[in-house]
Design a protein that fits this description.
Number of domains: 2
CATH class of the largest domain: Mainly Beta
Helix content: 25-40%
Strand content: 15-25%
Low-confidence stretches: 224-237
Number of helices: 7
Radius of gyration: 18 Å
Distance between the termini: 41 Å
Shape: globular
Largest sheet: 5 strands, antiparallel
Strand order of the largest sheet: 4-3-6-7-10
Length: about 240
């Protein structure tokens, strides 16, 4: 996928490369990555587009073709939905979101919804500096508006309050730092939340991101901008 984003890639092509039947390949791929091959490919294409927008002077049309979209309109719509802003605005802001908000809380959420909480942990040897984003999403892909979100200045406890009923994935992400070239990520779920049910304790042990992890598509603040609709919990020793 990473080496052939401008090409038309079918499930048959990918399964043939892996030397599996397409049905077995699709099942195995989803088991390993949490996404279908088509969903993962779409995410990788948008991730590459994000990179090209802030590192090149290519036009949006040229970038859309480079990452495998025949229609710039389709590309712009999918980019905006997944990243949270249009390709042009993403380039203008150098890939930074001004402010990130979770879905609005309803009266029922405030009165009857439980919390998801836990600790963010770093791998051995990782420097403690670097903001950590925690988000609740309906699938194992950090895109679009999170159900709930929070940001920590480093490892420690987090709380996502008033979580609505549903099946959610808790995803953690720390951008690359001078001591770690790869982002640090964590994924837990699905977490089944019931109205009026108990709180859920979900620890997030971060690890270096691999090529099999779904990319972070959502544009994040630079660490100084606030997150709205979330409760910040300062890290504890």
């Amino acid at each position: 996928m990473h080496e052939n984003l401008s090409e038309v890639l079918t499930l048959d092509d990918m399964a043939r490369t892996a030397m599996f039947s397409k049905f077995h390949f699709s099942r195995m791929f989803q088991r390993v990555t949490g996404l279908s091959p088509a969903r993962f490919l779409s995410a990788v294409r948008l991730e590459r587009a994000k990179h090209l927008l802030v590192t090149t002077s290519l036009s949006v049309t040229q970038i859309s073709h480079q990452v495998g979209y025949a229609s710039v309109g389709t590309f712009s719509t999918r980019f905006s939905t997944s990243v949270g802003m249009s390709p042009s605005l993403y380039r203008q802001r150098r890939g930074q979101a001004g402010q990130l908000a979770s879905r609005p809380r309803t009266e029922r959420d405030r009165d009857h919804a439980p919390a998801v909480c836990g600790r963010v942990e770093l791998p051995a040897g990782a420097a403690a500096n670097g903001a950590v984003f925690i988000g609740l999403f309906p699938e194992r892909l950090p895109q679009g508006q999170p159900v709930r979100c929070a940001a920590l200045p480093g490892p420690g406890r987090y709380t996502l309050a008033a979580v609505p009923p549903g099946s959610w994935y808790v995803l953690g992400y720390r951008a690359p730092t001078p001591d770690a070239r790869r982002p640090l990520v964590a994924a837990r779920g699905p977490v089944i939340v019931a109205a009026g049910g108990p709180d859920h304790h979900v620890d997030l042990p971060l690890r270096p991101m691999s090529d099999l992890d779904p990319p972070m598509l959502l544009a994040l603040p630079d660490g100084s901008a606030p997150l709205t609709g979330a409760r910040r919990t300062e890290p504890t020793p």
